[in-house]
Design a protein that fits this description.
Blueprint: E1 10-17, H1 24-37, E2 42-47, H2 61-71, E3 76-80, H3 86-100, E4 105-110, H4 114-123, E5 127-129
Parallel strand pairs: 1-2, 1-4, 2-3, 4-5
């Protein structure tokens, strides 16, 4: 677990994904996260917002954000840009979480990629939830 700031302790949920496009598996995880942490303590982070369109990246960041907002209009969303190294990517992740939840909290990461799970567990910065 990683703790930030000062004050009361809150558990927060942070779901990291590309959502390109959002599908029922993503929706199940989002709903589980919101059930566990409430919408006020949940954050969706859209990965690869800065990549060019391709067969792997069919939609822009704005399109993906709009799809999600059509289903979950009140959920917090933040872009998580790609970085040149895993260390830089992880530092960006922690910075965005700290800005989004500027109070003392326990971070619960929701994701489906085993590589991400190993990375988070290696750094011991958060509890990881894999609902895939």
């Amino acid at each position: 677990m990683h703790e930030f700031g000062s004050g009361p302790i809150f558990d927060v949920g942070v779901y990291i994904g590309r959502f390109n496009p959002i599908h029922k598996g993503h929706q199940r995880t989002i709903e589980q996260m919101m059930f566990n942490h409430t919408i006020n303590h949940s954050l969706l982070m859209i990965g690869s917002p800065n990549v060019n369109l391709s067969l792997r990246n069919l939609f822009t960041y704005k399109e993906r954000r709009d799809f999600i907002k059509a289903i979950y209009p009140n959920i917090r969303i933040a872009p998580l840009p790609d970085q040149t190294s895993d260390e830089d990517w992880f530092s960006s992740l922690i910075d965005i979480i700290e800005i989004s939840f500027p109070f003392y909290h326990n971070v619960n990461i929701y994701c489906g990629d085993i590589k991400d799970l190993e990375h988070f567990n290696y750094h011991d910065k958060a509890t990881v939830k894999n609902y895939r």
